[in-house]
Amino acid sequence: MENEILDDDRDFRKNSPDDYVEIINLKRAIGEEEKKVEHGKYALWFLMFITIIGAVYEISVYDEKALLLGIYIPIIVTYFVCAFLLKAKPQMSFIIVLSVYGLVQLIGMIGDPMLIVRGLLIKIIIVYYLAIAIGAAGKYEKSKSRLFDLGVD
Q1: Residue 4 lies in a domain
Q2: FRET pair for 137, CA 20 to 30 Å: which of 13, 98, 112, 130?
Q3: Domain housing 43
Q4: The total number of structural domains that make up the chain
């Protein structure tokens, strides 16, 4: 009778003590994963900021409109779209950002092999936080799904 009232056809059951322990552990894990995703978000915003600064610098030095339109605008737009998709699909967004960043670095290294050495520490930090955020976003989504299965919203 009580299930007929609900719109989502979820079966509510009484949770056992083991379920409550699992719920508490899942909520702790979600809190930890949210922090890692937040750090990945900061790395994404930092990456966007650095890309915009680099675009402004290169456009002012080389005075090339094609450089801005062909390279920097698509990269910056991709980063912004991924930043706004973080709420809905965090893992996919971080994978796209890391892929685009890696591709840009690879293409840059083909043009100038010394690029790998310049800014190495910043590159390592950005890749580290984005990679950690990819794993954390996946665990976060699984934990949220499991909480939903246990009847916790």
Answers
A1: no
A2: 13
A3: 16-149
A4: 1
